[in-house]
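Appendix C: a fully annotated inverse folding record. The material below is reproduced so that readers can follow the format used throughout the book. The structure is listed first as tokens, followed by the designed sequence.
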């Protein structure tokens, strides 16, 4: 490995969230010094995941199987669908371990400024999924930002005619808050105390 290749590795690592150039250099050196115990297994894991990861055609989750392990699990309650912005929020709810239903991952939020419309988020797919049943409640676990709340209102309007309950997370999610940054207890409480919207 030449210095140029090491620089390239550092440059790629620096593009990961939470890693600036300085921590990327530290991470690269850490890997270089632990080739057998860390770098080789990491390469193997990256290769395996890259080759097999796919978007769940039902809920939009990322998994190495399709439908994903949550959609395929018969123990999950199919009458409850929790709508989240992205997979990080799904993971946050799963870490809390209190939600037993299924998910719908939007992959973003409606945004006039960024030109993200209902078709970009596949809201028709969500509407069709809800209409097919056996859904009894749709829980909107979306950020308390302007875009999050706009998205929540649009989805609530879409689902309202079906008569299915639409609820939102209770107080406790900070304004501008990101689900992924909430501690598990707060998220659990917000989910348990959800209310109709
Ligand atoms: Zn799925």
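Designed amino acids, in order:
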């Amino acid at each position: 490995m030449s210095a140029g290749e090491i620089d390239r590795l550092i440059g790629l690592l620096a593009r990961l969230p939470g890693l600036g150039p300085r921590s990327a250099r530290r991470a690269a050196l850490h890997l270089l010094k632990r080739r057998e115990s860390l770098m080789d297994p990491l390469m193997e894991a990256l290769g395996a995941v890259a080759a097999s990861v796919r978007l769940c055609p039902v809920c939009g989750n990322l998994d190495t199987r399709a439908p994903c392990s949550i959609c395929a699990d018969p123990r999950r309650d199919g009458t409850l669908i929790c709508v989240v912005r992205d997979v990080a929020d799904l993971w946050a709810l799963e870490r809390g371990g209190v939600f037993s239903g299924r998910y719908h991952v939007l992959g973003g939020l409606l945004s006039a400024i960024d030109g993200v419309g209902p078709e970009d988020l596949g809201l028709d797919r969500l509407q069709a999924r809800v209409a097919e049943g056996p859904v009894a409640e749709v829980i909107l676990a979306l950020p308390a930002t302007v875009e999050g709340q706009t998205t929540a209102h649009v989805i609530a309007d879409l689902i309202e005619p079906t008569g299915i309950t639409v609820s939102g997370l209770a107080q406790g999610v900070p304004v501008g808050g990101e689900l992924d940054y909430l501690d598990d207890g707060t998220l659990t409480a917000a989910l348990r105390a959800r209310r109709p919207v």
